[in-house]
Design a protein that fits this description.
Keywords (chains A, B): Transferase
Number of helices of chain A: 15
GO molecular function (chains A, B): prenyltransferase activity
Pathway (chains A, B): Isoprenoid biosynthesis
Family (chains A, B): Belongs to the FPP/GGPP synthase family.
Strand content of chain A: under 5%
InterPro entries (chains A, B): Isoprenoid_synthase_dom_sf, Polyprenyl_synt
Oligomer: homodimer
Chain lengths: 342, 342
């Protein structure tokens, strides 16, 4: 399909996310409950269900976007939501395993405005918790996928994990390098975000019993959405309101080479040269530096270009959908991906 | 079976290990070769195949004990060695993923007399490499296990990973605690070593198409061997020759609460009290302290007791074997487990 599909959600994406949480959370909680302590307790804290001591303390938790993609992809392929639950839970577990490990690697101390696992229990326990969630995800997927597609689903999930590892490696090392191109940046973001979103959609299709070509199309759809999501994240990381986004530090303060920055640096403009000088410095960025860098990126066209690319990837994602009627939820989520402030 | 089986190997265990390496290494190398760089290069270095730059540099690598258990368990259940290869490779990958993460957590700088992965590539890349090897193991097992038992095998493998995480957590935290009992120590060592050796044997049985009761018996057999292996490791960690064992630092220098130490501390002797004082100190252990601690552990009976327990677990392992004739290799490996110096 090559037609440009217009984005017109039939119901608010927040409702789809809320519905997904209701559908998916019982199996997620059950999987966590089966872990030995203290892994169980640390996991419940990380998911925002409990406080540090394991007492119920409903806090803010993840958006459940990836499980919603899995359930919506299953619907888009003619399946029933219930069949998508094990895959949705497995994808959410993998996402959180990588978040917990990423927080260790990046030294991030806050997530959803709460101290990260490693800051409370230490690096060894955070590494172990990530490892255990990875194990739970794999076990659950193979055991509970319907239609005998557990093995196929696992192969997709573990391939996504390997891509995630590659992307995170490039992200860790690209932060200090100066010669990153737009293609490098896109490749990194495909690994960090695209691979698992592609997998989330492909597993939804598998859960619906879809044919291989449809599963592959949904994988491509999820990858395009993943890139659009990541580009939007990059915009929020520079121009978002920290109070709304939950990101306390501007990406610029950390000299992160996200897509708007790389696009600006590659623009061969006078602004690119000045931005390169600011990014090349070694002193901590002052608020004036940060404001100036944001201005330069915008003047060099990095902001507009990234926004246009995000829209382009959304269009590419929608072109992969098998049937616009059953794909209403997936279209609504696509709309959410680029129209959000957190 | 309750009869005491005598240990009389028909061929040297070193030959079994060499034969296993020849059988298993091609698939292991193939699995690693499929990783994206630099994960591939880091893995080849860790396995002792390549130097830091990726040039062939045959160094010392692991013993291949766990893959040998898998292949021998398959033989013991009437299977052919080739059927056990995917499971043997998966178990070896999981073992190495946990070693790489453990080295990060424990801050260990040497393994097989070579710098550990994290000391060369940094903690983030070492965490990512472990994560990727975990993914490769799961994918390979589900794809390549014969007789349609991939899902069952994966469930056993991931349960073992969760037990490993629990055991490693207890090991990290037990190092500083003072009230550890023999039961605590055995539970920790079952998690750290018994679970994966049990899994290695159970997967060999599954690869042979064994009945559930036999698979369960082989799991128990491997767990008993694992405890015997770990107890022997604990003895080597105190009384072994560092030049032979490849362990540069005595476990006593790190105030490790391994089984001989815990057994001595629990002995209610005068030696236990003196040992507790030495272990309770905060200054680095002097060579005199280390020598005195080893003496006290021996006088309190900790060395003899641990050796007797290792022998007892070997006997318990052998009692689980289905058929002494097909189990010759497994019996030979059991002999190796307690009669070794590295």
């Amino acid at each position: 399909m090559t037609a440009v599909v217009s984005v017109s959600p039939t119901q608010p994406p927040t409702e789809i996310l809320a519905r997904t949480r209701k559908l998916v959370e019982p199996m997620l909680r059950e999987a966590i409950a089966a872990l030995p302590d203290p892994l169980r307790r640390m996991a419940g804290y990380h998911f925002g269900w409990w406080d540090v001591r394991g007492n119920p303390a409903p806090g803010e938790s993840g958006k459940m976007l990836r499980p919603a993609l899995t359930v919506s992809a299953c619907l888009a392929c003619g399946g029933v939501p219930e069949d998508a639950v094990p895959a949705a839970v497995a994808v959410e577990l993998i996402h959180n395993f990588t978040l917990i490990h990423d927080d260790v690697m990046d030294g991030d101390t806050l997530r959803h405005a709460r101290p990260t696992v490693w800051t409370i229990w230490g690096i060894p326990d955070a590494v172990l918790l990530g490892d255990a969630l990875h194990a739970v995800a794999a076990e659950l997927l193979v055991r509970a996928m319907p239609h005998g597609v557990g093995a196929q689903a696992l192969q997709r999930l573990e391939s996504a994990v390997i891509e995630l590892c590659r992307g995170q490696h490039e992200d860790c090392h690209g932060q200090s390098g100066s010669g990153a191109t737009i293609a490098d940046c896109e490749r990194m973001e495909m690994g960090k975000t695209g691979a698992l979103m592609g997998c989330a959609c492909a597993l939804g299709a598998l859960a619906a019993g879809a044919a291989p070509a449809t599963v592959a199309a949904l994988d491509r759809c999820g990858r395009e959405l993943g890139l659009a999501f990541q580009f939007t994240d990059d915009l929020i990381g520079i121009w978002g309101d920290p109070l709304v986004s939950g990101k306390p530090t501007s990406d610029l303060a950390r000299r992160k080479r996200s897509m708007p920055v790389v696009a600006a640096l590659c623009s061969q403009t006078a602004q690119a040269a000045e931005l390169a000088r600011i990014y090349g410095g070694r002193d901590p960025m002052s608020p004036t530096d940060i404001a100036r860098a944001a201005e330069l990126i915008e003047e060099a066209g990095g902001r507009n270009w990234t926004q246009r690319q995000a829209d382009r990837h959304i269009q590419a994602a929608l072109c992969e959908l098998p049937d616009a009627r059953t794909a209403a939820d997936l279209i609504a989520l696509a709309c959410l991906v680029t129209h959000r402030n957190r």
